[in-house]
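Intended use. Records like the one below are meant for learning the mapping from a protein sequence to its folded structure. Do not use them to infer anything beyond what is encoded.
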Amino acid sequence: MMKKINLFELIEENKFLYKREDEGPRISWALEKHYQNSAYDDEILFEHIKLGFFKKEDILLEDIRNVIEVAHKVAEYVDQENIITQLKNLNAPGNSSSKIQDIFINFCIDLGFESEKKELFKDYNLRPDYYKKLNNGGILLEVERGKTISNNMDIYDLWKCHICEEASHLFLFVPHYVSHTSNIYESSRRRLKSFFTKKNSINVDSLFLFGY
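Structure written out for the chain above:
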């Protein structure tokens, strides 16, 4: 049986592997692609989901190791075949993102995420799906389905994290596709990447994009 890759080690291994030296510090990872180009011959990453990772240029990987480790646990759980089957069955017209969320949220609660912390946005009349407090800041967890691209909900969720003083990291779940839109994960990954370049710096330290 093949063993799982350590996600932090994979990200750290690839942090300098640019083809062009003038591209500067790495700020984005399409992790399934980086895995395919790595030296892990007897290990696997994820079988069913895709995972994108972005960080601000001035954020050191070691300083957000705990966030990466939490993301790895969530990704491994969601990547299980029985979970993925449930997600695919519910990724259909008429089903809401909350039904998608319900499939794996109890696992996230066990990791310390709490439901809809209204006080996080008391000045904006907003609330996140779930929130996990860290020693320094916190993580917002948002789950989208049919409106990810058509209603720009991926951008909206990033904006919520941007204005939230108590959160500096975002875990965002989006589908690979829905009935009326294809390539949602890839489209969202391209859109979100632009916010982490130096000229478009955003007040979010890191973002994990989970494609289910």
